[in-house]
């Protein structure tokens, strides 16, 4: 177990460049298996989940080098269509190897994926898509797919706009015979980025980013040279840190259009930020006051499928709200266990009422005090780091490796903007 020691109270000031989007890089690594030619991916974040995806791809037959955020990847032949239970359990996107294996070999065998424990995480959309495109599926705890005759495009309608199910279907349909139209598709920036990568490999995908995606199947994909977009969730997390500590921060490397809803939510918290084509600035010296809804009603911040507020931004935003004056309700609609960590904030002195597993009411501004805590998931872990940086005293955060699944070089990036944080070696 890795731990962090965090001293609160330091002034946060400076600039940070975010890494490539974790949730784009991971499905892209699975998608690269579709081509026999060399593919180059740039701006790949060097995080644990990426290493896991590369380990799996390597076992399946890919050869690659990964240095300075550049991944050179080639999979001439698939060596096996099975991914071990242990490998699958290491992250959520291991399940996305199903599509390229079925597409290239007509078979795949996988086990339940891992990933953050933030509530029930359905795979129904993945299986619906693969089966409708022509794969048989058997097994309960082992997922076995067979499509000896290949996959065939068709009309699909997801019962919910699942991010990874949409990605699974994009990867499966891009080389299926005929046209696939996917309704109620997810449109997150990482889904759009994956579609663009597949197009750079010769795919014919239109509509990504909207809720209807059309995919004209092509026979084969070729090599590519593609750069992953910056991580808007990492950007939002650092901006939440600046907002919570009254700091001043410039964030580089994220597209302004990926942060429009973030700006709306921060406006509601009374935090101003400026979006430019090449950077976001959160000016210092703000004393944020939560903005009531029209008529003086307590405002609500809720998450939802893109372009609504990302669920992955909720935890850091809750901590930011503890440092704003006024009252706001957070309604986490997507996951039922994500806001459990609010109990830890209460033990630090936050004025929070946990109404039920989905809703918490925060009244600020509260003086937080240092505690010892453990990171339950990537985003709650980052939220705890932010809370510790606002608190009086020195906090210890255990299970830091969970945070490193999603944040590259966290301590170095935080130290560079003034935070007092160090890794405790076991
Ligand atoms: C590797 C990866 O990319 N992981 C992300 C992906 O996970 P993942 O793809 O697993 O998440 P899904 O999009 O499938 O679903 C997220 C949750 O939202 C619920 N839901 C979803 C769609 C909808 O219209 N209504 C609804 O209630 C689902 O039931 C589920 O509880 O998307 C999540 C939601 O953005 C993010 O938190 C994860 O970081
Ligand atoms: C929930 C997340 O990741 P995963 O789906 O990989 O567990 C996340 O990135 O916040």
**Which whole number gives the mean pLDDT?**
97
Outline the low-pLDDT stretches: none
CA-based gyration radius? 22 Å
What is the β-strand count?
23
The fraction of residues assigned to DSSP E strands is 15-25%
Number of helices: 14
Main pleated sheet: 4 strands, mixed
Give the distance, in angstroms, between the N- and C-terminal Cα atoms: 7 Å
The CATH superfamily of the largest domain turns out to be Enolpyruvate transferase domain
CATH class of the largest domain, named Alpha Beta
InterPro entries: Enolpyruvate_Tfrase_dom, Enolpyruvate_Tfrase_sf, MurA_subfamily, RNA3'P_cycl/enolpyr_Trfase_a/b, UDP_GlcNAc_COvinyl_MurA
Active site: 116 (proton donor)
Binding site for UDP-N-acetyl-alpha-D-glucosamine: 92, 312, 334
Domain Enolpyruvate transferase: 6-414
Describe this structure as you would to a colleague.
The chain is 31% helix and 23% strand. It contains 14 helices and 23 strands. The protein has helices at residues 22-32, 48-60, 85-88, 98-105, 124-132, 163-173, 189-200, 232-245, 260-269, 314-322, 342-347, 378-390, 400-404, 410-416; strands at 3-7, 13-17, 39-42, 63-67, 70-74, 107-110, 136-138, 143-146, 155-157, 179-183, 204-206, 212-216, 224-227, 248-252, 274-275, 279-282, 300-302, 326-331, 351-356, 359-364, 372-374, 394-398, 420-424. The strands form 6 sheets. A 4-stranded mixed beta sheet has the order 21-22-1-23. Strand 15 and strand 16 form a beta hairpin. Helix 4 runs parallel beside helix 6 (163-173). It is globular and about 65 Å long. The chain binds uridine-diphosphate-N-acetylglucosamine and phosphoenolpyruvate. The active site is at residue 116. Phosphoenolpyruvate binds at residues 22-23.
